[in-house]
Design a protein that fits this description.
elongated, alpha+beta, 20 helices
Length: 590
């Protein structure tokens, strides 16, 4: 029978066609799958790159930096909103003509605007950041579609030069470049926003849009008081001008905590226009400069000897007519001193007496004593750029090193470092880590970081008490008499250091004059270091630096409402009682 054959052939053809179609569909599916894998896995980076090419530019929008306040909440640095000009080249109708119009409105040449366009992208080019008041109105009046504006912030320092070296300054991109603006930049700056400019695959423009808004930074509250800072700067400026000094620095602290109440330098600058000042004006000499302290350092020689029992109360030292020879080197006093008590050696700042006292301590012991005070390493103050100073290793000392160190040479310190070290003699023997920032405020205005006094004992209480008496005596009867106050007792020490010469030895014409003082001597509320670098004419610390302290201290103490401790009776001074614990080998002086 041949009947079914055509039917079978037809069914076979149908099955073959179905199989062929299934094979074709399978091949097509496999091709699609391979392409999907290729695009999703192997070409994903290329595709993203092509997408990024359509995204013409990513612009970072500066956030408002957090404010900086003084200790009482007064604004020292704030951010104010301003406009910044950009151009979208895709929207030019007559590029050259419109560029000339924009340039005239900005007061610049057309080539400057063209240069900005070359640096930018096809959709976005910054032309001028942080426009001056009125500039936006002039440009908008031109009716140029390509011109646009974005909100930014300008850093403003309303008190101008006040506390300039503490605050620092910021660049055009709102990055902190110096001072607290730099040291706390990541906390103050906030989180930048992002702006995107797009063009799609067909070349059609997509409007510029903000993708992520900027978030304001945290604010700082300082330990510095604007009123105290103003007093210190006013008097430092007057002394700097009167003495013709190359530079000047003043540091004023709370000796009981290490808080910086004021820090000033001359020359100074206005952080609103810092670029107009030379580099030498911008440096914070209070932490960055390193100098040989001279006679203020004799405080440590005297304290080390007293604490080790190497000198006794009332002991007399033969100062040999004010001259001594050490390892072939001749060293002189500023006067021809004969026999002095150990108290008079410090009060009258005898180099010879200091060398003879230092010789009793011994090299190793004195090096360890000075290391304990932090010399040769940074204090850890919350300001950038601090110099660690120089204290040579004991192994590097020469035969004259002990003599040099005893009178404040062959050691290098920064002003803040010396201030907090000397303050230990006023506060009972504690070396505090200095600080400028009282608190960092969080987003809700609540402190998320607070200043916490951190100190270590470097003097026994008895030694510290004795040093307070000795330093008061140096002001009452010695080289620091120009620092005496009518209403308050004062303790302090003068310093006059010859500056090293580049080729070795010391200059006979260039000096660093200084005075460290604290008041009231009975219960110190302030301690300060005044430093004049290369004063002309008079150059002794007691002549040029101590009077600056005498002008600053009473005004600051009255402002802080510190009760006077000096009283007068029958035409003579009557002092509030200053307790001094007995030291080794002697009785307490009253």
């Amino acid at each position: 029978m041949r009947g079914p054959a055509p039917v079978e052939r037809h069914l076979r053809r149908v099955r073959l066609r179905i199989l062929s179609l299934a094979i074709l569909l399978g091949i097509a599916a496999a091709v699609i799958l391979v392409r999907l894998v290729r695009y999703q896995v192997f070409l994903a980076g290329t595709i993203r790159g092509q997408a990024r090419q359509q995204q013409e530019r990513v612009i970072e929008l500066s956030p408002a930096r957090g404010a900086i306040f003084d200790a009482t909440g007064r604004e020292l640095a704030v951010s104010v909103p301003v406009d910044s000009l950009f151009l979208d080249p895709s929207l030019f109708r007559d590029r050259d003509r419109e560029v000339r119009k924009v340039a005239r409105a900005l007061g610049v040449g057309p080539e400057r605007v063209q240069a900005s366009l070359r640096r930018g992208g096809r959709r976005f080019a910054w032309v001028q950041r942080k426009l001056k008041p009125g500039t936006r109105d002039r440009i908008e009046a031109l009716g140029i579609p390509a011109a646009g504006f974005l909100p930014e912030y300008r850093r403003l320092y309303p008190k101008k030069t006040l506390a300039a070296h503490l605050l620092g300054y910021v660049g055009v991109d709102d990055q902190g470049l110096a001072g607290l603006e730099s040291g706390f930049n990541t906390r103050i700056r906030g989180e930048p926003g992002l702006l995107f400019a797009y063009r799609d695959a067909r070349g059609a423009r997509i409007p510029i849009q903000v993708d992520r808004p900027a978030r304001e930074g945290r604010s700082l509250v300082l330990t510095v008081d604007e009123v105290i800072q103003h007093v210190v700067e006013r008097e430092l400026e007057a002394a700097w001008t009167a003495t013709g000094a190359r530079a000047a620095t003043a540091v004023l602290i709370d000796p009981e905590s290490g808080r910086i109440l004021a820090l000033a330098n001359r020359p100074t600058f206005d952080p609103n226009r810092f670029a107009a000042f030379p580099e030498s004006h911008l440096r914070n000499r209070g932490v960055a400069d390193c100098f040989e302290p001279g006679s203020t350092f004799k405080v440590f020689t005297w304290a080390a000897a007293w604490q080790d029992g190497r000198i006794r109360n009332g002991e007399r030292i033969d100062c040999r007519g004010g001259a001594i020879r050490v390892a072939g080197r001749n060293i002189h006093d500023h006067e021809r001193f004969g026999v002095l008590t150990v108290s008079e050696v410090l009060a009258h700042s005898s180099n010879v007496g200091a060398i003879l006292i230092g010789d009793r301590i011994g090299d190793a012991r004195f090096h360890g004593f000075l290391t304990g005070f932090g010399f040769g390493r940074p204090t850890g103050i919350d300001l950038p750029g601090e110099s660690p100073g120089i204290l040579n290793p004991r192994e590097a000392w020469s035969r004259t090193s002990m003599a040099s160190l005893s009178m404040g040479h062959e050691v290098c310190v920064n002003p803040v470092q010396l201030t907090v070290a000397l303050a230990a003699a006023a506060n009972g023997g504690i070396l505090y880590r200095p600080g400028v920032v009282e608190a960092v405020l969080g987003g809700a205005g609540d402190p998320d970081q607070r200043f916490s006094p951190a100190g270590v004992r470097v003097l026994e209480p008895a030694t510290a008490g004795r040093m307070r008496w000795e330093l008061r005596n140096a002001v009452e009867t010695g080289t620091g008499q120009a620092a005496r106050l009518r209403d308050y007792t004062v303790g302090g020490k003068t310093g006059t250091a010859q500056k090293p010469e580049p080729g070795g030895g010391y200059s006979s014409t260039r000096f660093v004059a200084s005075f460290f003082g604290f008041a009231p001597a009975t219960r110190p509320a302030i301690a300060a270091l005044i430093l004049l670098d290369e004063p002309r004419g008079k150059h002794y610390g007691g002549e040029v630096a101590a009077p600056v302290f005498a002008r600053i201290a009473p005004e600051v103490l009255h402002y802080l409402r510190v009760a006077p401790d000096r009283h007068r009776e029958g035409g003579r001074d009557m002092f509030a009682r200053l307790d001094v614990a007995p030291g080794r080998g002697g009785t307490a002086a009253r």
